[in-house]
Amino acid sequence: MTMTKGPTAQPPGPSEARPARRSHVPSDGTANARAVEAARRAMLDDTRPRHRTRIGADVVCEALLLQGVDLFFSYPGGVILPLYDVLGDYPQLRHVLVRHEQGGAHAADGFARVTGQVGVCMGTSGPGATNLVTGIGTAMLDSVPMVAITGNVPSALIGKDAFQEIDINGITLPMTKHNYLVRDANDLPRALAEAFHIARSGRPGPVHVDITKDALQQETSAPHPTHEEVVAGLPGFRPNLDANGRQLKLAAAELATAKRPVILAGHGVLHAEAWDELVAFAEKTQTPVAHTLLGIGAISEDHPLSYGFMGMHGWKHVNRAIQSADLLIAIGMRFDDRVTGNVRTYAPYARIVHVDIDPAEIGKNVAVEVPIVGDAKRVLAALLPLVEPVDPATRADYFAELAEWRRDSEGSSWHGSGAWREGVLSADYVIDRIGELSAHEATYVADVGQNQMWLARYAGFRHPNTHVSSGGLGTMGFSVPAAMGAALGRPDRETWAITGDGGFQMTSQELMTLTADKIPVKIALLDNKKLGMIRQWQEIIYAGNYHSAHLPGPDFAKLADAYGIPAFRARTPAEVDDVIKAAQAVDGPALVWFEIAEEQNIFPMMPAGKGLSDLIEKWGGADE
Amino acid sequence: MSADASSNGVVPEVAAASAASTSPAPARSAGPPPARALPGGGETRRHTLIAIVLDKPGVLNRVASLMRARNFNIDSLAVSRTDQPDVSRMTITLHGDDVAVEQAAKQLYRLIDVLKVQDVTAESVVAQELALVKIRATDSNRGEILKLVELSKGRVVDLAPESVVVEVTGPEAEIDGFVALVRSYGIKEIVRTGSVVMSRGSNSIEEAVKR
Ligand SMILES: Cc1ncc(C[n+]2csc(CCOP(=O)(O)OP(=O)(O)O)c2C)c(N)n1
Predict the structure, then answer these.
(1) What is the ipTM of this complex?
(2) Residues with C-beta less than 6 Å from any ligand 1 atom
């Protein structure tokens, strides 16, 4: 049995080399910066014995390094101070001091979504931990690999309602993939190794590790377990990666007879990094690919077989294709109600092949004909040789009809002039311009509401993991902090946070983190002075009873300025390109304040409870 | 349903079997589209699940919390150790149609501490429950009660001037029968363990998860 101790072992490398990370240390590399750094450490050393022993807090840092983590988002507090006390000894670990723990959790989430690696956030007990909860829940519903670490009160005080004690383990239990309460430093290496393994393996998800203060302070020589030991210690966690051969043959047989097949690509394709396999499969079988909100980027929207975004605010042509399909091949998606609407009227002619890594997703929301449990990449790779190549000519009528539907639907509800009505700026146009001017090469992080749907429809996505959005939980306030993590995860890409004025006001404290850590996020604030999506529902479903839809905001330019962030403002289509370019030219974060139409709706819209064939495309005579 | 949600890579293939036929999709022009069948909706009955779990702190909480959050209603839950250290066994009875209960089993299987889940409803099992019933007794009716207890194969485990405590063991229905029988004397209190079940024959769910 081999045991590894300390951070000497090689961290598991990412599947592909990550681009070089920018250092945001002020004047990094200069003699002055080195002197500041040295003085800082000397100051810490003064307060503690030079040759201190290894404690639980060290185990946490070692474990992070062993897992290949060099960046995390955190906020200090009483019981997690033992960790902060040793952080200075691990200069390889970059600590980003957020301004609210929710921001830290979303940042870890954004980092994970663009890199495919586990994002890490931390906080103290009590309010620090509860502030993380929304971010953990967001990661849970979107199956994002995350490890959230919290301090807790000393183990002897647990259950005594000690200062800042809350049963955070009980709180995160139903909203994590797994969670731990560690009261003994000797248990820490295993708990942390398991947490990372669970978070990233199979269907990814967040894992929460709660550590008592005394465990962080306790001396320990417990070694870090090897990967094999971790796996052996988790007999109840054996993700099914390879599909059952018989099921694959059944799926191939379905495809052989289908005349109008559609592939539904979901987040699972991205998690499994199965984008190449998806394209190969679609091309060989000449099957158009529709995608879910989180499946954006699974196939480039440029690809001739990419058909577009499905569901409640998806494209009408995509929903029509699903409604008329005779076969759906769903890959790594879960038939969420935003995708199906009323299941009774969903895809009424289609047989369904459902590929998912989580057996519990199959048959949960819709009954399916061919269930396949497995990793999307492996399933598609195994399926490819079993399917007959399809001659595109045999699909000529089908493709012609799809093309006609697409022309029809893409033309409607699009404001190519940039104006929604005379003189007011249209949101779809703004998004389109951001996509164009960033050459579709940026990371685009959505908030929640209309802005999220405009982004999904109009930015034009070309690459996997360049679209980040809170799909399952629909967490307002997500975009700015998630973009913060995304920008640090992929510093080689420009990063845009797209947000409404409502969501922006929920987490705008992170503007300070952007400034302090020089994180170059470009924020596109789509300010309709409304809770736009709420206003739209109230207009269409609640007979125009606009209670609380109006949302006065501050002078956003002054706000940005107060944080030291350059701000640009556009009110007309003519100004749009200039402000986008101005923000791009800033070396660091920038805000672009788009004062858009106040009452623009996002169409089409499938009212809740209705079906994909019941799309509302106009209201009050306007197909806005 | 396939009784075992935990075997590698296999999801219930009841529905899949029909997929082998290459019946063409219904023609789109043939009248209004047929309604898509919802998962489940079949006949509701009582199911018994056996879950073999790691005996980690909070595992009972995880199981109970999951069943609550996913809207499954547990009728009874019995937990005990097994012959393996660190492994516990849960017997869960719940009401639902086959598909809903299969969902419950699959969701349980997602828990990291759950090693195996099996629906034994359709299998040949021994299912026993134990109950303690404290019955009001007087000098004049005690004899009568004791007679009933004897006929019901119960056992008196405590005898006091104004009460008797009776232990009865058997299938749930038998215990229901006994309780109904003595109700008229006055039941002061009752406690039941909930069903524990074991498959007949040499099959062993526990051996199947031996590490
Ligand atoms: C934390 C949170 N609270 C409430 C909601 C409900 N909600 C969904 S969209 C929306 C309006 C969003 O308004 P805004 O941020 O201005 O974006 P817009 O729709 O105008 O683009 C609200 C309140 C939510 N999704 N998240």
Answers:
(1) 0.86
(2) A 447-451, 474-476, 500-503, 526, 528, 530-534
Q: Pairing state of beta strands A495-500 and A590-595? A: unpaired
Q: CB distance B33–A243 less than 8 Å?
A: no
pLDDT at B34: 83
Give residue limits of the domains in chain B: 44-123, 126-197
Q: Tell me what the mean pLDDT of segment A161-171 comes to.
A: 95
At A535-587, the pLDDT tens digits run 999 999 999 999 999 999 999 999 999 999 999 999 999 999 999 999 999 99
Task: Inform me whether the pLDDT recorded for B25 exceeds 80.
Answer: no
Q: Which helix (H) or strand (E) holds A454?
A: helix A450-458
Q: Measure CA A593 to chain center.
A: 24
Please give the domain boundaries of chain A with CATH numbers for all domains: 5-232 (3.40.50.970), 245-408 (3.40.50.1220), 414-595 (3.40.50.970)
- Nearest chain B Cα distance for residue A359, angstroms: 7
Nearest-CA residue for atom 1 of ligand 1: A476
Question: Residue A448, SS3?
Answer: coil
Residue A232 one-letter amino acid: A
Of B10, B15, B25, which has the smallest distance from its Cβ to A368's Cβ?
Answer: B15
Residue B164 forms beta bridges with which residues?
Answer: B135, B159
Phi, psi of A339 (to 5 degrees): -95, -40
A451-467: buried (b, 16+ CB within 10 Å) or exposed (e) per residue? bbbbbbbbbbbbebbbb
Query: Rounded distance, CA A294 to CA A282, Å?
Result: 19
What's the average model confidence in pLDDT over A221-233?
97
Residue whose entry in the numeric block shows the structure tokens 């961290």: A11
- A79, A82, A88, A90 alpha-carbon torsion, rounded to 10°: -100
How close A287 gets to chain B, by Cα (Å)?
17
Q: Report chain B residues whose CB lies below 8 A from the CB of A256.
A: 22
- In this complex, the residue of A174, A367, A370 whose CB is nearest that of residue B37 is A367
Ligand 1 centroid to Cα of residue A361, in Å, is 28
Contact in structure between A77 and A124 (CB atoms under 8 Å): yes
Rounded Cα distance, A308 and A300, in Å: 10
The vertex-A522 CA angle with A17 and A448, nearest 5°, equals 95
CATH code, B126-197: 3.30.70.1150
CA of A447 from ligand 1 middle (Å) equals 8
| Amino acid of residue A458 | Y
Q: Does domain B44-123 have CATH number 3.30.70.260?
A: yes
Fold agreement (B44-123, B126-197): yes
Which of B36, B54, B84 is the best substitution to test chain A (most A C-beta atoms within 10 A)?
A: B36
Q: A36 C-alpha vs ligand 1 centroid, how far in Å? A: 44
Question: Looking at residue B140, what DSSP letter applies?
Answer: T
For residue B17, pLDDT over 80 is answered with no
Contact A236 B53 (CB under 8 A): yes
- Read off the pLDDT band of B18 (50, 70, 90): very low
Backbone region of residue A59 per phi and psi (left: phi > 0; alpha: psi in -120 to 50; beta: other values)? alpha
The H-or-E segment that residue A521 falls in is strand A521-527
Least confident of A228-242, A605-619, B130-144: A605-619
**Residue pLDDT, tens place only, B37-70:** 888 878 899 999 999 999 998 999 999 999 999 9
